[in-house]
Amino acid sequence: MQRRKGFFLSLVGVVLSCVSFSVAQEARPRARDLGIKIGVLPAGANNAITDVVGVTVGQTTVIRGENVRTGVTAIVPHSGNLFREKVPGAVFVGNGFGKLAGSTQVNELGEIETPILLTSTLSVPKTADFLMDFMLGLPGNEELRSINPLVAETNDGGLNDIRGRHVTRDDVFSALRSAASGAVAEGSVGAGTGTVAFGWKGGIGTASRKLPASLGGYTLGVLVQSNFGGVLTIDGVPVGEELGQYYLKNAVAGGTPAVQSADGSIIIVVATDAPVDHRQLKRLASRSMIGLGRTGSSMTNGSGDYAIAFSTANRINASAAVRDIKVLGNDAMSPLFQAVIEATEEAIINSLLKATTITGNGRTIEAIPIDKVKEILAKYGRK
């Protein structure tokens, strides 16, 4: 009886821990909750990548023992069989210190044929293998002899036992099968569970923009996995300097330059319903780096900065020899460039604000202090 009682109490403890984690996630604000309005374009209904109709997001957060803090985030362009109905896509490399599986075929053919998975650096090969299992098992794919899994990463080795490569087949399948529309969990979840940004806890963040009807009424959404450094800026305010935590601080003060590094990575996933092709998507993806720069990223030597962009318009039928498609003219692209810059900047800030303090692998990374951020923003006239 005593054993059963102890087991029951332990189970209650686990449940309460999960509830506390969930509440902490909900209690932390997004940028707009603090009155931060980045840019001039309006956000979509959820201010998330899922505002692009048909796009869904699923996540598996992997927290095991004292040293495993990792996960998987799945971005699914549509609910059908992606190999049979591919989407136009492109990958842009800001700084190529990374392991983005599948990128060369995407840029060669201009097509994405699997969901996009984000995970930990050393888990990319396993995650790609599990994604192939998932795709090969879909009805209609029984005779496939080639598949191009698209898997991106950032290095969560500070908080996570990265060498253990703890992402499992069940973790990957769970992320894919749980993909849903609507609000997206942000912060220390999914592939952002063990990431660090600007010295604070980073993670998953998302935002969207809606063009006015006179500009086509298109929606563009961004999701990021933030794990990089620099001198944090929020809506033009030097928050990193005010908090006393920023790249090269020690060197500028005459100390040891290597003490504070800005190495890391970011994956930026861009979705839109605008009818654009591979070439235009690459142009669009490249502009996301401006949004990254606005947050204060240094894009250092050891930073892997990648953008993956796709359009839900003009699906590509795998068996069609000829496609009759409509694409925007080049002069219509500039509003979308503005949208991706704004959404990328806001998604990164959301990833920081929503992230919770995480301890793992013998280290604790604190969440950015919301009250101090509010004080700094007020000092600079941001209400």
Topology of this protein?
Elements: H1 2-27, E1 56-64, E2 68-76, E3 85-96, H2 103-109, E4 111-112, E5 116-120, H3 124-136, E6 150-154, H4 169-177, E7 196-197, E8 200-201, E9 204-210, E10 219-227, H5 239-243, H6 249-252, E11 265-272, H7 278-294, E12 304-311, E13 316-317, H8 334-354, E14 358-360, E15 363-365, H9 370-379
Parallel strand pairs: 5-6, 11-12
Antiparallel strand pairs: 1-2, 2-5, 3-4, 3-12, 3-13, 7-8, 9-10, 10-11, 14-15
Helix pairs in contact: 7-8
**Known CATH architecture:** 4-Layer Sandwich
What count of domains describes the coordinates?
Answer: 1
- Summing up helix and strand content along with how strands pair, one would put the structural category as alpha+beta
Look up the CATH topology: L-amino peptidase D-ALA esterase/amidase
Question: Uncertain spans, ≥5 residues at pLDDT below 50?
Answer: 1-25
Order of helices and strands: HEEEHEEHEHEEEEHHEHEEHEEH
Q: Specify Rg, calculated over alpha carbons.
A: 21 Å
Number of DSSP strand runs: 15
What is the name of the CATH class? Alpha Beta
Number of discrete helical segments: 9
Beta-strand content:
15-25%
Main sheet: strands, sense, barrel: 7 strands, mixed
Based on CA inertia axes, which overall geometry fits?
Answer: globular
Distance between the termini: 58 Å
Helix content class: 25-40%
